[in-house]
Amino acid sequence: MPTQPIHRHTRGVYIIAATPFTATGEVDDASTDRLVDFYLEHGVDGITILGIMGEANKLTEAEACAFASRVLRRVDGRVPVIVGVSGAGIDNLRRLAVFAMENGAAGVMVAPTPGPAVEDRIRHYFHQVCEALGPGVPVCLQDFPQVTGVPISAATILALTRECPEIVMLKHEDCPGLGKLSAVRAGSGTVETPRLSILCGNGGLYLPQELARGADGAMTGFAYPEMLVEVVARHAAGEIDRAEDIFDAYLPILRYEQQPGYGLAVRKAILHHRGVIADPRTRAPGPKLGPLDQAELLRLMARTDINVKELNHGS
Fold first, then answer.
1. CB 7 within 8 A of CB 168
2. Burial of 278 (0-12, 13-18, 19+ CB in 10 A)
3. Is position 219 annotated in a ligand binding site?
4. The pLDDT of residue 310 is above 60
5. CATH fold of the domain at 12-238
6. Angle at the Cα of 162 (from 159 to 163), degrees rounded to 5?
7. What is the SS3 string spanning the chain?
8. Cα(26)–Cα(258) distance, integer angstroms
9. How far, in Å, CA of 313 to CA of 212, rounded?
10. Cα-only R_g, the chain
């Protein structure tokens, strides 16, 4: 079943999906189905796959296509699916993007390629990408300089919004980045510059402040998607303090999951302990939790359950 493409007024929570693996390292189809069901049951507005936290760079092209195809079939048009297609070669990028769109994706996500952080180079690259993909493929520009090593200024993001109509969404996860978010929000949706949807990453660590600055929602993979969904919904309803109370109940484990270079292993371990994926492994080279880490995490999960129960009891 086809779904509507992403657009300049896309809002809500687009969860970044993990890629589950079996104990022997293959993509785990059964866990993938459970993961999709888990996200949908918790009310997400969309799903983003094959991102950085989805270990896309560790998949073969055949694995990436098979995983995308399985997710899209399982979702079956119930929510939009965005497929990460970033890669060193535009031909490969285009091939995966075409496959994804032909199988029902709502759009694709593209990050800048590594290289000098020269504004003209970045603009030229995204012009090439949009030309290769054509006008029928909506693009989410991923701005994650902590990983890509390529900072993109607010001015360049706004210029690309004007110059490339295919770019309809920004995945904002620069850090510190609240000032940039404010600049992009103020500079788009004007006579000169089309509106740009802004969904925020970084695990949701700054979500209340980002929503207050004009973000349209979250695009991140925190292993408690129910928190992201409720915080965004409460904020949209004007219940700002209640949204922050909910956020605060999850903050200790959110902070723990956001440890640089280690957070993916934590995220997968939480999903495993919640009964969603069969095995928490990441593909090598990747982080792995030891016995002390596991004990620490289970204590945090138990405390999170208590915090949430107390919060609901007091509501």
1. yes
2. middle
3. yes
4. yes
5. TIM Barrel (3.20.20)
6. 85
7. CCCCCCCCCCCEEEEECCCCECCCCCECHHHHHHHHHHHHHCCCCEEEECCHHHCHHHCCHHHHHHHHHHHHHHHCCCCCEEEECCCCCHHHHHHHHHHHHHCCCCEEEECCCCCCCCHHHHHHHHHHHHHHHCCCCCEEEEECHHHHCCCCCHHHHHHHHHHCCCEEEEEECCCCCHHHHHHHHHHCCCCCCCCCEEEECHHHCCHHHHHHCCCCEECCCCCCHHHHHHHHHHHHCCCHHHHHHHHHHHHHHHHHHCCCCCHHHHHHHHHHHCCCCCCCCCCCCCCCCCHHHHHHHHHHHHHHHHHHHHHHHCC
8. 26
9. 27
10. 19
- As a whole number of angstroms, the distance between CA 161 and CA 130 comes to 12
**Domain residue spans of the chain:** 12-238
Number of other CB atoms surrounding residue 35 within 10 Å = 23
Residue 114 has pLDDT above 90, yes or no: no
pLDDT number for residue 315: 62
Give Cα 26 distance to the centre of its chain.
23
| Cβ–Cβ < 8 Å for 248, 276 | no
For 12, 26, 218, the CA distances from 225, given in Å and listed in that order, are 12, 25, 10
Residue 215 pLDDT: 98
Work out the end-to-end distance of the chain between its first and last CA atoms, rounded to an integer number of angstroms. 39
Instruction: Read off the pLDDT of residues 234-250 as tens digits, 9 standing for 90 and up.
Output: 999 999 999 999 999 99
- Cα angle for residues 143, 205, 260 (degrees, 5° grid): 70
The CA distance from 26 to 97, in Å, is 23
pLDDT single digits (tens) 270-291? 999 999 999 999 999 989 999 9
Q: b/e per residue, 174-190, with b = 16+ CB within 10 A?
A: beebbebbbbbbebbee
Buried/exposed 46-80: b ≥16 CB within 10 Å, e otherwise: bbbbbbbbbbbebbeeeebbebbebbbebbeeebb
